[in-house]
Amino acid sequence: MPSSSIEVRDLRYRYPGEHHDALTGLSLSVSAGERVAVLGPNGSGKTTFVMHLNGLLSMQSGEIAIGDTSVTEDHLREIRRRVGAVFQDADDQLFMTTVREDVAFGPANLGVTGDELNALVEQTLARVGASGYADRNPHHLSGGEKRRVAIATVLSMNPDVLILDEPTSGLDPAGRRELIDLLAGLDQTQLIVTHDLPLALQLCERSVIVSGGQVVADGATAELLADEALLAQHRLELPLGFDPSRL
Questions:
Q1: Helix (H) and strand (E) counts for the chain?
Q2: Domains and CATH numbers, the chain
Q3: DSSP assignment of 89-139
């Protein structure tokens, strides 16, 4: 499967009406095929940052490139095909009456039709372990099933980069484990925004901490999570009794 590098230089952003920047010079380099966790307290700028990567927010200052393509107005159609975002609430991505229609929506808009489109839907659902869901109403699925289908709607576009915002939110332990297995088996470059620190350790060899609108720590996930002072400084906390050295 395709994957692309991510290069972000000195990204700055202020929401209309605000007096302070949400992003204050954020820079980050991610290699093609790398899986990186983005950690940080609420309000640190994590979601604002990742919303720039496929043009959901228009850049005010700085530079972003996905592979060799700059994230600019001229390239937005291509960028949005190459960078797939999976939102925290799967219901935000599921709006059709059947799973088949939701997964087909993106490629159909790119001109894929007929047997080719049907085969693509079936193949994509099989990749996420959702074979047999095609004719079900997505809003009648469990939380874990919805998350799989939401990921399928993105994978059907054959993206190079996956952005996942709090992917384990609302999942039970079995659903969480299944999601980890699914993400671990994907080849795309992945940025995983999460407060689930054990998830970061299980999935990502590398993590960054975003605080005050910029990257304040970047390193091996196990090393960052073993630094109690660093975690406390940025309002991050491991589950009671969790020992990162045991994974």
A1: 9, 10
A2: 6-92+161-239 (3.40.50.300)
A3: SGGGT--SSSHHHHHHHHHHHTT--HHHHHHHHHHHHHHTT-TT-TTS-GG
Inter-CA distances, 170 with 47, 145, 167, 176, Å = 18, 12, 9, 9
Q: Helix, strand or coil for residue 85?
A: strand
CB 162 within 8 A of CB 6: no
Instruction: For the chain, list the strands marked E by DSSP.
Output: 6-13, 23-30, 35-39, 61-66, 69-70, 83-86, 161-165, 189-193, 206-211, 214-220
pTM given for the model: 0.91
CB neighbour list of residue 159: distance below 8 Å, 6 or more residues apart? 2, 81, 82, 83, 84, 188
Using one digit for the tens of pLDDT, what is the confidence trace for 182-230? 899 999 999 999 999 999 999 999 999 999 999 999 999 999 999 999 9
Q: What is the DSSP letter of 163?
A: E
